[in-house]
């Protein structure tokens, strides 16, 4: 009844040089795709997007740089230097990479091959934290962890920003509010996790009314990036170093946490994307003081 994600589905300013690269991929025991992708030192990753093909994109929360890695080799390079403000959640649509701009209060669309900024949208004039994005046939939807709204921008670059106020069960408070976002079938409803309360909401994309999803007493506190596959929702709980696996009902109004994925290599992972049998998660390392020499990586796990 439900489809997969519509499109190949989560500071100190440290400059990552254009063309900078990272080496040191670690291959799994079968000698297939690497199970670790090294990122440039000092990069401070947050978001990930994969595809088309075995290519991953990572955004820097420090500079907004975008790093492109080949998942077959683990090697890559910075394709876009960034605007000096964050690149957080991201999704690809063909050759377009849609990026949530964090404290920049903006959204950007970057060419996945050249790194050129194709379009930039100022989403709000208020202080904001534009955190994540999902793509549907109706446009790209962005969450704001500071303001109780969603933003929608057109996929093709023609049109203006629309702001959808959130109402219903969701209430914003201190800390990180609306964070990860995915779309249900048809794009008429969206799922949004609220990091500070651990609650999950089904949002009507036309009215903005948010209905709390019944998790039967479970909490998704520190919920960050989301990945929806059929009725299975993966929720990265960053500071818990875990990924909650939630089995949803057919309407998306009820869910049960059936297990949590952990890995000794987790170091505050933030977002998640799939390629083949593996889930890829960048380690943000929020608890590690960032320096230009601090190492960063993304790891792959089998769910």
List keywords for this structure.
five-stranded antiparallel β-sheet, mainly beta, 303 residues, 0% helix, disordered N terminus, single chain, five-stranded mixed β-sheet
Task: Write structural notes for this entry.
It is a single chain. The strands form six sheets. Strands 1-2-26-25-24 form a five-stranded antiparallel sheet, with no helix packed on it. A five-stranded mixed sheet has the order 15-19-18-17-16, with no helix packed on it. A four-stranded antiparallel sheet has the order 3-4-5-6, with no helix packed on it. A hairpin with a 5-residue loop joins strand 5 and strand 6. The protein has strands at residues 26-27, 34-39, 45-50, 55-60, 66-70, 76-80, 90-93, 96-100, 106-111, 117-122, 130-136, 139-144, 149-153, 162-165, 167-168, 178-183, 189-194, 199-204, 209-212, 223-229, 232-237, 242-248, 255-261, 273-275, 278-282, 296-301. It has no helices and 26 strands. The protein is globular. 0% of the residues lie in helices and 46% in strands. It is mainly β and 303 residues long. 51% of the residues are buried.
What's the helix-strand series? EEEEEEEEEEEEEEEEEEEEEEEEEE
| Strands side by side in the biggest sheet | 1-2-26-25-24
Question: How is the main sheet built?
Answer: 5 strands, antiparallel
How many E-type strands?
26
Structural class: mainly beta
Helix content: under 10%
Q: What is the 3D form?
A: globular
Helical segment count: 0
Low-confidence stretches: 1-21
Q: How much is the average pLDDT?
A: 91
């Amino acid at each position: 009844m439900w489809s997969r994600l519509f499109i190949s589905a989560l500071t100190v300013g440290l400059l990552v040089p254009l063309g900078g690269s990272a080496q040191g991929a670690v291959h799994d025991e079968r000698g297939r795709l690497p199970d670790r992708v090294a990122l440039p030192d000092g990069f401070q990753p947050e978001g990930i997007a994969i595809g088309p093909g075995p290519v991953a994109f990572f955004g820097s929360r420090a500079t907004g740089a975008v790093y492109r890695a080949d998942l077959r080799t683990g090697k890559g390079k910075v394709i876009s230097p960034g605007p000096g403000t964050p690149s957080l959640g991201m999704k690809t649509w063909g050759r377009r990479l849609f990026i949530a701009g964090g404290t920049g209060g903006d959204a950007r669309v970057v060419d996945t091959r050249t790194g050129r900024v194709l379009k930039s949208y100022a989403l709000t004039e208020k202080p904001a934290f534009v955190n994540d994005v999902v793509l549907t046939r109706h446009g790209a939807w962005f969450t704001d962890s500071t303001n109780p709204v969603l933003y929608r921008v057109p996929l093709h670059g023609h049109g203006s920003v629309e702001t959808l106020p959130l109402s219903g069960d969701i209430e914003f408070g201190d800390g990180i509010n609306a964070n990860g976002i995915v779309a249900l079938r048809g794009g008429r409803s969206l799922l949004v996790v609220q990091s500070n309360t651990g609650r999950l909401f089904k949002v009507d994309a036309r009215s903005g009314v948010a209905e709390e999803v019944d998790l039967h007493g479970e909490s998704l506190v520190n919920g960050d990036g989301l990945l929806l596959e059929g009725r299975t929702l993966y929720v990265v709980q960053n500071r818990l170093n875990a990924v909650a696996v939630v089995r949803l009902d057919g309407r998306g109004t009820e869910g049960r946490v059936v297990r949590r994925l952990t890995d000794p290599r987790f170091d505050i992972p933030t977002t998640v994307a799939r390629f083949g049998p593996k889930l890829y998660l960048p380690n943000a390392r929020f608890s590690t003081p960032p320096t230009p020499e601090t190492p960063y990586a993304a790891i792959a796990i089998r769910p």
